[in-house]
Amino acid sequence: MNGDIRTALYVVNRYWSTHWRQYFPGYHYPPYVLGAYGGGIRSAPFCGNRRVSYDNAVYCPYGHYIAWDITLMADGYRSGDAWVYLIIAHEWAHAVQNRIPARYVLRAKELQADCLAGAALFGAAADDTLLFEDGDIAELRAALRRLADDTPWTDSGDHGNARQRVNAFTRGANHGVYGCLP
Ligand SMILES: [Zn+2]
After folding, report:
1. Each residue's pLDDT tens digit, 83-127
2. How many domains does the chain have?
3. 159 CA from centroid of ligand 1 (Å)
4. Which label site among 41, 84, 106, 172 has the fewest CB atoms less than 10 Å from its CB?
5. How far is the CA of 130 from the centre of ligand 1 (A)?
6. How confident is the model at residue 50 (pLDDT cuts 50, 70, 90)?
7. What angle separates helix 82-99 from helix 109-126, to the nearest 10 degrees?
8. Ligand 1 mean position to 114 CA, how many Å?
């Protein structure tokens, strides 16, 4: 799993570093990778003055870092390696949202992050930095369904239900970054 996490970080960073200027002003400023917490490794980090929650993964705008509970990673990884690629691409997408002009950020921030995750992973595959294996696409959809809310998106903090999350990711996969912007 740690090898897949390292590969996911490399691939997603490389995608955004290479393609940033096609879509956005400025340059790609990668988030700091704080990495794993929980599972006896270390306590959940603080984001501002609040500790981030366990069994979760986060992008924290204060400190511009991404981190994940190792238990969440390991639980999902048991059903397939695509899980860690999705989590990392999604949290990295929040870092992207934080660095682009506000006019590009949708109110449905979580669904946009799924879309940008799809754009980055499939964009990396088009660049030949990531090679999808048999079953990866099904695993990605299953992971999105598992991480989805039970109710449809109504509020900016919502993740959206399973259908909405799969649709958002697929839009990014099929149409790239432009498919995720207003
Ligand atoms: Zn999110």
Report:
1. 999 999 999 999 999 999 999 999 999 999 999 999 999 999 999
2. 1
3. 7
4. 41
5. 22
6. very high
7. 110
8. 8
